Amino acid sequence: xxxxxxxxxxxxxxxxxxxxxxxxxxxxxxxxxxxxxxxxxxxxxxxxxxxxxxxxxxxxxxxxxxxxxxxxxxxxxxxxxxxxxxxxxxxxxxxxxxxxxxxxxxxxxxxxxxxxxxxxxxxxxxxxxxxxxxxxxxxxxxxxxxxxxxxxxxxxxxxxxxxxxxxxxxxxxxxxxxxxxxxxxxxxxxxxxxxxxxxxxxxxxxxxxxxxxxxxxxxxxxxxxxxxxxxxxxxxxxxxxxxxxxxxxxxxxxxxxxxxxxxxxxx
Length: 267
Hints:
Layout: H1 9-36, E1 40-44, H2 48-62, E2 67-71, H3 73-81, E3 88-90, H4 94-102, E4 112-117, E5 119-124, H5 139-143, E6 149-152, H6 158-169, H7 173-176, E7 180-183, H8 186-194, E8 200-204, H9 205-210, E9 214-219, E10 228-234, H10 241-249, H11 253-261, E11 265-266
Parallel strand pairs: 1-2, 1-3, 6-7, 6-8
Antiparallel strand pairs: 3-10, 4-10, 4-11, 5-8, 5-9
GO biological process, one term: molybdate ion transport
InterPro entries: ModA, ModA/WtpA, TAT_signal
Family: Belongs to the bacterial solute-binding protein ModA family.
C-alpha cells in the first residue's frame, strides 16, 4: 500500500489560524447586527393602534423597523418572566410594571409615563341608553335579568382590575360580580360588546373611540379608581442603541400627537 500523505504540521496550524481569524472577524459583525436589530416592543392591547401608527412614523423618519407584540399587560409580563425576547415593555398599569421591576426584568431607572386613559361604560350602539354612574346607579335594573358586563379578567388584566376597583368604590361589586365576564384583554372585552354578546362593557375610552357598533353611555367618576397610567421601560439586557432610540421616540412630541389623536391623556 502506497504511503498516505498527511498534511504537514505547518499547513494544519495555518488552517487553524485562518479559522480563528474568521471567527474573530465575524464576532464584531454579529455583535453589531444584534445592536442594530429591530427592537421588539411588548405593549398593552389598548396601545395597538397608536403604537402601530408611531412605528410607521418612525420608519418614515429613520428607515428603521420596529416589531410589536400586543396583549394584556399581565400576559406580557409573564412572557418576559419566561424569557421571551423584547426590548421595551409598555404596560397599561403600574402593577405589572412594578412586577417586572421586582423580578429584575426591566430597568426602573428608564421609566417614563407619558400618557393616561379613562374608564367608560359602553353598550351595543343599537341598544345604547345614556346613564349616569354614581353610588345610586342600579346596575341590576340596567342589565336586566340576564345581562352581562364584559371587561378584562378582574384579578389580572389591567382594565378588569380598574373595573373591579371602580365598582367596589361605588359599592356595587358584590351586587354585579356574578354578571361580570372577564376577557383576556380589553380588546377581547370590546369585541364581546361589538358582537352583542354582552349587554355592556367596561373599557378604556380610547378603545371605545375606535370600536364599531358600540357607544359610550357613561364615564366612570375619576375618583372611583386609581389614575389609568401607562409606564414604559426598557428591558434589562436588551437596551441596545436601536431600542433606546425608539424608546425615546415614544415620548417624542410627534408620538404624543398620535396619542392625542387616539384620545389618550398626554402628560
